[in-house]
Specification:
The protein is mainly beta. The chain folds into 4 domains: 217 residues, Coagulation Factor XIII, Chain A, domain 1; 86 residues, no CATH class; 244 residues, Jelly Rolls (Sandwich); 49 residues, no CATH class. Helices cover 1% and strands 35% of the residues. The protein has a 16-stranded antiparallel beta sheet that branches. Strands 3, 4, 6, 7, 11 and 12 form a 6-stranded mixed beta sheet that branches.
Length: 635
């Protein structure tokens, strides 16, 4: 059946709804535009943003227990987007729905409408305390006061009273679809506005009208069905070194295959790696059939335009092969540690590289850490970390492992390399996708092997953090002072993968996103000798890597929202070092067991033949076998 072959107005099942008894109705106003919209709007359908504060809507995520996060990316130059023919969200009758807006800046509210009786109108109907009645087409909203006083207190759709700064909340509360809602397609509207339940957009100058405030309206289709949502085709980028980023003003790359041409750019981790002049592309359909290879030629300066027609037919794979130097210099970066997370779906990450992080009641990020396979697993070539409400069947297994041994409402996923791999200095590249939502708090960060000085004195390096729904990336170090050095930069997360980079050596740290400098560069030289003696730079020792999806505690990051499932995916981790930073980088370890066939002879650096790999080897010594360097591991 075609995507929109049956609409709500064509349902064969009659939709029985209670007569709408309104405690508060805001009459729909006629649209002023000359073109048509799905429902009336108070701006022209082709209106572009005129707000001077950078406010604009980038996308919407709708999440349900049955189908997870379903994303919609919109044209963020336009105030109105009609996506009814291009985007269908899926949900089951009677299940809980969460909606999240990816919106630049703040001080706006979110509203969700569903034309439940298919009459072509969106009628808000609120009971006392602001709760939508069963007959209301306004199903969820984050704030409404009901009067023109800009400083008035108000409610959200759960009936919670909101005052002062608490009115500045964008994402509306979760709502539950009617249990008896007939299957079929329903039109729905998402609106970003301020203190207005008018589905056409506020025009009341007392609040600052819809256009002045940077409002946005998106219409889409909601399919009510017991069937699962079809999996959207995904984009996969593969490279031996370096990575792909967006080639335009948007440097992130979409998770799902776009409907338009895609411009990409190649980023090299070091000048010693030569980027190719062409890249390869192929598709894999739902039956696993791989298409013929397509070659895409470089347009200019590392830019490649991938035509939309080449990306049809299933999942899309794009591959680049960087040329290695014939010989590495001591200052060239070499791959020291990596994981592409290519294991089978629903399996655990490589136990030689990762372990599940330890639980600790004393900090926000790991108070819910669980060993459950539901919150850490491989899927679709990525490492998935989640924070989810604890299912009833997991209550006992998810009991707090340390005092007070109580039951926990949530369980979160985190992995680290502690005890398996640690390093001092180098370049860290991590490609990641997250789904912003109130309470979300994912991170990519480093902690030292030696933590005897206590936090924060022992030093913490945060490569990337994201908080709640803000389109902002954060980088921080903690040392002698709790948040000794912090930086942030705008970052569009809406369905986009980004590559977060830390370059760290004896004198500085530099943060980048998608190959462009972010936050800023921290130079060790800004600290006086006295400050250094007081522990302002505890970063000349080995650190290990942590990847996690956490939730807040009501401070910087809000408390988690009941019923929502938080998720962050990691596509790859690559750590590079130079021979000066790590003399053993690029050197193979001496084999600990003899192969079935006779091995190539091993010589020391003076050319003397060793009788066996370990007969005369010294701990940490370097040897030659078959033209390759070997490192004798320390016992």
């Amino acid at each position: 059946m075609e995507e929109n072959a049956y609409l709500c107005t064509l349902n064969t099942k009659p939709l029985v709804m209670q007569e709408k008894i309104l405690s508060l109705i805001l009459a729909l106003l006629p649209a002023t535009g000359t073109a048509q919209s799905v429902f009336p709007i108070n701006v022209d359908v082709n209106q572009t943003y005129t707000n001077t504060q950078g406010r604009k809507l980038n996308g919407i995520t709708l999440s349900t227990p049955s189908n997870g996060a379903q994303r919609l990316t919109v044209d963020n130059t336009r105030v109105y987007n009609d996506c009814t023919a291009t985007r269908t969200f899926y949900a089951k009758p009677g299940e809980e729905v969460n909606v999240s807006f990816a919106y630049s800046t703040e001080w706006m509210n979110g509203y969700v409408y569903i034309d439940l009786n298919c009459d072509g109108q969106l009628t808000p109907a609120l009971a006392a305390g602001g709760v939508p009645t069963p007959a209301s087409d306004l199903v969820s909203y984050s704030f409404y006061s009901g009067n023109d006083n800009a400083d008035a207190n108000g409610f959200n759709s759960k009936g919670a009273t909101l005052t002062g700064g608490s009115r500045n909340v964008l994402n509306p509360p979760a709502f539950t679809l009617p249990q008896g809602l007939p299957e079929g397609d329903y039109k729905m509207r998402f609106k970003v506005d301020w203190n207005s339940i008018d589905p056409a957009g506020d025009t009341n100058p007392a609040n600052g009208d819809f256009m002045q405030n940077g409002g946005a309206i998106v219409d889409a289709t909601l399919r009510i069905t017991q069937k699962p949502a079809p999996r959207a085709p995904r984009l996969h980028f593969v490279s031996n070194y370096g990575f792909f980023v967006g080639g335009g003003s948007e440097t992130g790359l979409p998770d799902e295959v776009p409907a338009t041409d895609l411009v990409v750019r190649l980023v090299s981790p070091d000048a010693c790696y030569k980027a190719p002049a062409q890249i390869n592309l192929w598709t894999v359909d739902a039956d696993g059939v791989k298409s013929a290879m397509t070659t895409i030629e470089e347009q200019s300066a590392g830019l490649f335009r991938i035509p939309a027609e080449a990306m049809q037919g299933g999942d899309v794979w794009v591959e680049a092969t960087f040329e290695e130097p014939a010989q590495y210099r001591n200052t060239d970066l070499r791959l020291a540690f990596s994981d592409e997370f290519t294991g089978d779906d629903r399996t655990q990450p490589d136990k030689k590289k990762w372990k599940r992080a330890d639980h600790d009641n004393n900090s926000a990020w790991n108070r819910y850490i669980s060993t459950s396979d539901k919150v850490v697993f491989l899927e679709d070539g990525t490492l998935v970390t989640r924070c989810i409400p604890c299912p009833e069947e997991d209550w006992e297994a998810n009991k707090n492992p340390i005092p007070p041994y109580d039951y926990r409402d949530w369980m979160s996923g985190a992995v680290d390399t502690r005890g398996l791999y640690s390093f001092r200095y180098g370049r860290v590249d991590v490609r990641s996708l997250t789904n912003p939502f109130t309470g979300s708090f994912p991170a990519i960060w480093l902690l030292p092997d030696d933590q005897s000085a206590g936090w924060p004195q022992y030093g913490e390096i945060d490569i990337w953090e994201m908080v709640n729904t803000a389109p902002t990336a954060h980088g921080t170090i903690h040392a002698a002072r709790e948040s000794q050095y912090t930086g942030n930069t705008p970052c569009n997360y809406d369905g986009l993968y980004h590559v977060y980079t830390l370059e760290w050596d004896t004198t500085q740290m530099k943060w980048s996103i998608d190959g462009k400098e972010a936050y800023s560069t921290l130079n060790k030289g800004i600290y006086s000798a006295a400050q250094l003696s007081q522990g302002y730079w505890p970063f000349d020792k080995k650190y290990y890597l942590i990847l996690n999806q956490s939730v807040g505690m009501g401070g910087w990051a809000a408390y988690p929202v009941a019923g929502h499932e938080y998720e962050t995916r990691f596509d790859f981790v690559r750590i590079y070092q130079t021979a000066r930073q790590n003399p053993s980088v690029g050197i193979d370890p001496v084999p600990t067991a003899q192969p079935a066939t006779a091995p190539a002879p091993i010589h020391d650096l003076q050319g003397r033949l060793l009788r066996s790999p370990h007969s005369q080897a010294k701990s940490g010594g370097i040897y030659i076998q078959g033209g390759r360097k070997l490192l004798e591991a320390n016992p």
